[in-house]
Amino acid sequence: MFEAARVGDDIGHSRALAGMIAGTIVGGLIAAAGGIAAGALMVAGLGASCLGIGALLVGASLAVGWLTGELATAARDSIADAGAASMEKEGVIVTGSHNVFTNGRPAAIATNSMVECAKDGGAQQIAEGSSRVYINGLPASRTGDQTTCGGKVMTGSGNVIIGGPPEQTLPVASEVPEWLCKASDLTLLFAGLVGGAGGAAKAGALAKLFSKIPGINKLARVACRAGVLMTGAAAVGIIARPVDIVSGQKFLSGDDELDFVLPSRLPVRWQRYWRSGNPGDSVLGRGWSLFQETRLERYQDGLVWRAPSGDYVSFPRVPKGSRTFCEPEKRWLEHHQDDTWSVYDISGERWHFQPLKTDAPFLPLRLTEPCGNDIIFEWNDDHTLHALTNSAGQRVVCRYITVSGQVRLSGAWLEDEVCLVSYGYDDKARLISVTGRGGQVRRRFGWYDDGDGTDLLRSHEDSNGLLSEYLWQSIDGLPRVIAYRNNAGEELGFDYDFTGGWRMARREDGARAQWLIDDDDNVARFTDYDGHQTSFVYQDGELCHVVLPDGAMRRSQWDRYGRMTAETDPADRTTKYYWFRNTDRIALTQYPDGTATQATYDLRGRLLSETDALSHTTTYHYPDDEETLPERITDASGGDVLLAWNRQGLLTQRTDCSGSITRFTYDRFGQLVSSEDAEGNVIRREWNDAGQLTALIRADGSRETLRWNERGQLAAWRDPLESEVTWTWNHLGQPLSRTDRNGIILRWHYDTRGNLLRLENGNGGEYRFTYDPTGRPLSEVRPDNTSRQMEWNERGLLSSLLESGRPDNDGGIPRRMQTFSYDNSGLLTGRTTRDAEYRYRRNPGGQLAGLTRTPTAEGMEKGIEADEIQFSFDAAGKLLGERGVSGELHYDYDALDNLTALTLPGGQQISWLYYGSGHVSAVRFNQQIISEFTRDRLHREVSRTQGTREQTQQYDSLGRRTRQRSIGGLTPDLPEQTIFERAFNYTGRGEVSDISDTLRGNTIYGYDEEGRLLRHYEARPGHSTRTFRYDAADNLLPDDGLPALPLTENRLTHWQNLFMKYDWWGNLVSRHSGLYQQHYQYDAENRLIQADGTGPEGRFTARYHYDVLGRRTRKTVTTQRGTSETRFLWQGYRLLQEQQQNGQCRTYIYDPNEAYSPLARVDHLAEDKRGEIYWFSADLNGAPLEVTGENGELRWSGHYGSFGEVKRQTEGFHRLARQTALSHQPLRYAGQYADSDQFAGSKLEQHVVLAP
């Protein structure tokens, strides 16, 4: 006794349940025998009543019945008690402490340890532990301690004993659930009446209505399962917007049928449903159902529940205090002690019905969720809804009309004031229109008046104007859809073979799809329009396995409540799910690599904590037992975020862990009206009557407006300066054209299924596309006449990519190909180009663990080398290490996943200090302080240290930087301590209009309405205004004053004094400028591998090498002075370090808030722990403006051209600097690196040459 419990130890239940069942059977036999005897006495009594002695015999029969009933109950209870004396294994403990182990296994603890119980289903927890020994703050569990399902820990450690009385941390359910006890008593009662009352109708004899035709709930589950197993809804027979090809039914249940949502803690979702196989009536007409039209009705000796979808579900009539579960529909019916009834599922939402006192339908009293928030219903005498009131106290009132003698819903009104939705009908009382708030018609319907489709849908039209039409035919006794078409041009014909079990769809282009149906009316095999086949395997009515076209299988397991318990991909990677009791809340997820995440809930299903795979826990706190929304969230580092909510359950205030407050306000419809940040800046929003955003008024008073067309599509957006962008749309809701603020039009063209066929770029150029029968792209032709052809494998994964270059003058077409391979689960494992073969290695969780490159013979001729990168990850999937040709990196994180330290190949460490939820307050290089930051209430940087300097920043009400100032802090009288200041002004559209700079003077920019740079003027001697022109595709045009011709191929061949040529693929291969000329060579992936020619330093040859991820790792440059080599180290795709042959390194550190904006550079030897630090002052776009040294001295100040080229130092540098400029400062615009071996001002973005 008291042996310490561990993960893997057994839990079990006593045999009281088995005893109860046995007791029920034995008790039932005794009661039956007594009932027969009592029945004989009753018959005799009735026959002798005329003699005056019948009363005595009838009384004796009742006494015998009572006595045998008591004997039966006693027999049942004695057998149950005997069963409770022994235990039977039902599962094991699956989780334990993350850092305390017993005999090498995680120790089990109350509350946090999950158990797997075959008897009760769902995730259960250990509910008890020692009151004297705590692990991770919770009682340590032992043998004999109970679980939440009433079981007990059966086995434990053989040599670790934990004493102390048990301490209970969670409620423990009765081992024999109440409903089973009641069912047992009911069995005895029925058995006792078999003879005495001539027998009673058996419980559960209710016939299932419409059993041959699936309801909307089942169709939704089928589509859901298909999505989970990564196959489309069409594969399981849901097509044609939508039609169930298995049964031939037409149904409607999607977002187009969601008329409005009224937010609250339990939102009102005013959802319509229609199904051709639904014979029921509704306030909307036959076949329709509104969500509130659910009800309970007597049928024979049971009950029928009409679900909100209009489906009918049969239940037996159970006694008070009992419930029953309908497994096909995943619903419980419960009969409460006050004689009311409720129907609910694992979501916890519960429909409550009044007592069944008449044969009339029993209407819902309210809809509730576990915390008690509810929607209350008021009913008219004719069983139509009068009004409902949501948990926010808002009231929706229904209004009705009479059409052809039938009552129909005309509309729903908020507070009887605002019409949320209205409905129109034809003269046969059939629904023909749905009009939303503001008068926009959202749906139109047409109906057949005669023939096989009488009173069935002829057509429906959505808000985009897509008209879908259907043709019906009576087949096998039921009307079924045999044809579909829409006004986008799509057409389908349907064939049904009920004898052979086949269904077929025929498209207007001749393509066909087939479905093979099994005996349970499930899709067993689907043959797609391209001929590929997918097969399906079912178990207990659930789609469990999908056999993909190449034979690979995706597997899943489901419990009886419709919850997935495991999924296994074709590579046998299994993820397991454990659920919290009988709810839809996941309590534990175990991943293929053995890691797990966990969540805990209270008995109302509210989330209490989330624990990641590294045991970092976030906790949630609630003000009372009825509030569903947390008032406080404590993160894994102990920081608190405070939340406030309004009656609608919408967030009104958020106070972060630093005390900064953000506020929100809403209108009665739940639309966000204003938001105010912690600095008091307010953004306001305006909405039209249809609930569409029409204006955004920013904190500075600038106003953006939006205009919507009659179909609810965005028609125009107007910027603060009143320039407008407009759109047109097709019936599929896709853009047809976009007219920008300069009047340039982009046009899109589609096929009948919405695949993009052509894109006109406004410049006379086109992109053209083709597709296979399933909609996968087959080809792309670009404006420069290059093209790409794609091939796909049976699984639908890209297997090859053939690229064709622009034809040569002789008509020859250059081509190159890439091929791809995958593992069984569809993850990329290989890629081959003409230059190299790539292999991808995965860890057990499917993450990329390694990547290798092996050059081909052609690749080796180009200088491509073998390469390998290895990655390591922590249990939560965060990158811990990266090893490549330039060295090894190691990453460390805090509990909030913020990067705290980065260890370089030489052992140096860059570290970050955070406050709050992840705001950087300091950066260090080993023990050297790089910068310390101060921030405002929005956590924006307001100052940073830069050696002896301090840089400050100011912002306007829109959050734009308006001033940047750097001043020395020690001896401001020295020239090198001069203040560097830069002030920014903006246009009404947010573009920089002018900059005042102490080192560069004043710079003025001019733009067109689309924000393209037109003018660049610098107020300094000798500088004239530079102007620019563009074609309609935004290509820069030559500034030669000649009439502008569009660059239909998107290739600039001449600009200023530059002349450029391109290869077949669009890569720049030569540039000429005066005496300088350069030539470039590329690999098969368009990466620059060689440059040669003449530059500022004379003749040169440069070779470039890349790692397996395409990042430049080395360059060698040969000039008249010899050959030099530089290696590059990357953090992701950001340059981290340059490494020279002499061991000198330059390590780059970046702004914590702007990923590609440099903060500092540290120059050091490869193994040194200290270095010389240089600080960057960066522009708005991340480009370095100045570089200063430790004492504040100016070391670099680049003068930028219009497009980022730096040809010289600023006038201010020559005026103020006391040292020569840094010989090497290659960083330019974000992500760009300037190679001094090429033209002054040329830039490389990792490996792509950019012309200035």
Automatic annotation (TrEMBL):
Keywords: Membrane, Repeat, Transmembrane, Transmembrane helix. The keyword Transmembrane applies. Residues 1-55 form the Double-stranded DNA deaminase toxin A prePAAR motif domain. InterPro entries: DUF6531, PAAR_motif, prePAAR_DddA, RHS_repeat, T6SS_VgrG/RHS, TEN-like_YD-shell, YD. It holds the Pfam family prePAAR_I. Residues 942-971 are annotated as: Disordered. This is Type IV secretion protein Rhs.
